[in-house]
Amino acid sequence: MSNALAISAVSAVLQYWLGQVFGGSPLSGVKVSARAPDILQTEITAAGSQPMRVNVFLHQVTHNAAWRNVELPSLAADGSTRLSSPPLALDLHYLMTAYGTDDWEAEALLGYAVLMLHDHPVFARADITTALQNLPSTNSTNALSTVLMTTGLAEQIEMLKVTPETLGREEMAWIWSALKADYRPSYSFLVTLVTIKSPAMTLSNLPVLQRQVGARPGLATGLPTLTAVMPPNGQPAAQLGDTVTVSGAAMAGTATVLLTNARLGISQTLPATVSPSGTSVQFTVPNPALPPPQPDPTDLPAGTYSLSVTFSAAGQAMVSNSLPVAISATIDAGSVPAALAHGSNVAVSVPCVPYLRPGQEVSLLIGGQQAPADPFTTPTRSPSFTFATLQSTSGSAVPVRLRVDGIDSPILDLTSTPVSFTQPTVTVT
Fold this sequence. Notes:
By secondary structure, the protein is an alpha+beta fold. It has three domains: about 5-195, no CATH class; about 225-325, Immunoglobulin-like; about 330-429, Immunoglobulin-like (Sandwich). The protein contains six helices and 26 strands. The strands form six sheets. Strands 7, 8, 9, 10, 11, 12, 13 and 14 form an eight-stranded antiparallel beta sheet that branches. A hairpin with a 5-residue loop joins strand 10 (about 265-275) and strand 11 (about 280-285). The radius of gyration is 35 Å and the shape is elongated. It starts with 5 loop residues before the first helix and ends with a strand.
C-alpha cells in the first residue's frame, strides 16, 4: 500500500516519462510540468516567451468502486476501537494540455504525449521505481523529489493503468471556465488505481493456542443462553444495590457478569451466583459509598448496558449471548420539596445516586413537565434544573422522575394491586 504522498507520486511518474518522450523527437527544449493551467498561463504571460510545454493537470479525484468496501467494517461495535485500516482506493482524472509557440507545435506535442500513454497503458513497478529514483536529478528544486521515493507506490497491490477518458464539450468548457484560463488542445485520461493505507494503529487478536471441539447429544446447543433480565419487583430498570435475576438455559459452573456501556466507555465484571437448576443467574449491582466530591467515581452510571455471562466449568470458559439491561438513577425522596410555586425560571435541585457524568442527557420531570439539567462539567449527585415555565398542578401531588440517558427513576409500585405511584411527589401551587 502507498502512503498519503501517492497522488503526488503518480503525477511525478507521468511527468518523468512524458519528459523522456521528447528526447528522441525533432522537438527540442520541451518542458513537461504538472501544474494548474491558470498558474501556468500566468507564468507564461509574465515571462513573455516560453519553450514548448506539455502540462499534466490532476482535475478530479474519485473513489474506486471496486475497492470501496475492502476490509470493512473497520471499527468495533463501540465505534472507536479500530479493527482494520481499509485502503483509500482512488481513481485520478488527468487533463494533458500542449502549449506551442509556432504553427503545428501544440499538435505535435500532443501527438507524442498521447502516443506514449497509448504505448504504455500500464506503468509497471520498474517504471514507477525508475521515475521516482530519477526525480532528484530531473527536478532538484522541488523538496518532494527525494520524499516521493518512499511513498510505496511501486509496491502497492495494483499497478497504475492508463485509460482514455472522454469529456464532452460541456464538461471541457466547464473545466476551462472554472480554471479561468485560455483553452488549449487537451487530452483527458484516467489513472487507476492508487491505494493509500492509513498509518493508524489497529487491534489484532492473538493467535489461538489450543482448539477444543466437542460433541453433545440432543438437539440443544449445550451453550449457555440468556433469555431475560429481571430487575427486582418487576421494575423495568435496576437500581444500585439491587439483585438482578437473569434467566436462561444450560447454565453451569462459576459465573461472572460483564456489564458494558460503550458510549460511556465502561466495562465492569461482577460476580454472579448460578441457581442449582441451571436456569438462572443472580448478581448485585454495586452500590459503593462515595461521598462527594468524586472527580472519578466508581459507581455504575445510569443508562443502558449490554449484559453477558461467562461460565467456567471443567477447565472451559463459555460466554453467553448478550441482553440489554437498564440501570436507573434514584432520587433522594427526603430531599425533594413537598411543594413548589409555579412561575417562570423555577430552579430545582434534586440529590440522586449514582453520580451523573458530564455528557449524559439528564432531565427532571415533574408530572408531565420536563426541564433539562443545568450544565455541569464534573460528576455530580446534586444536579440542578431550571423550568422556564412551571405550571400549577391544581393542588395535586404529581410524581417526580429523573431521566438519565433515556432511563427514568422508578415512580411505580408494581407489587401493589392496582399499581400505584410512589414517592417522591411534589405539588406545584
